[in-house]
Amino acid sequence: MFSIARRNAPCFVFVDEIDAIAGRHARKDPREGQLLRLLLHSLMGTFGEGKNRVSLRQAIIFICATNRPDELDLEFVRPGRIDRRLYIGLPDAKQRIQIFGVHSSRKQLAEDVNFEELVFRTVGFSGADIRNLVNEAAILSVRKGHSKIFQRDIIDVLDKQGMGVLLTEEEQQKCEQRVSLEKRRLLAVHEAGHVVLAHLFPRFDWHAFSQLLPGARKLQYLYSILEKIWSTKVIQHLVT
């Protein structure tokens, strides 16, 4: 790789997931350790004899990326090999809207799709997470028999990712029949407390969702959103 770079200088060399070959664990394995030593030697000898390290005509700029900088080998990241570090964080609200637009540009969207309403439910999402969300929503819409992706499809995928499972109304009724009335009352009172909190703290918007799972287990999921993006508070009544 570096020999090709020297023949084509000036150039860039980019390696993604560099921790796979330059992590601290590499020294514990003979093969990985040999690869790491070769990489370190190449970084120090990239310019060869008689070449000016600061010459733009002979420059080879080595760029690498990792999600685990703390796992990189100390010899690899020392000055002279890796001179600068640049942190690229997760996308903010505005950037997430733009990423939604990029990954949905080739998909059929219904008129009710509004990415701005999804911003505060995707806090902490990376670009890859948003791409997966859009793809899963497309798959779900096909399963529902839709020709387009609706807002409800995206929200259902978010609920499934957050809670791990979603039941149909028929499955929910069967599960509730296995749970005593007293337990259902306790769960209903608990969820009603979320509504009370939403009333006492109007700055927050609460989206509460509850359902009973097989085996008399309960699943509760609560979103606390700093900005009011839903006009209604949703709670599923467990006591008829």
From TrEMBL:
GO terms for biological process: embryo development ending in seed dormancy; mitochondrial protein processing. The keyword Zinc applies. Its cofactor is Zn(2+). Residues 1-89 form the ATPase AAA-type core domain. GO terms for molecular function: ATP binding; ATP hydrolysis activity; ATP-dependent peptidase activity; metal ion binding; metalloendopeptidase activity. The keyword Amino-acid biosynthesis does not apply. Residues 112-154 form the AAA ATPase AAA+ lid domain. This is Uncharacterized protein. The lineage of its organism: Eukaryota, Viridiplantae, Streptophyta, Embryophyta, Tracheophyta.
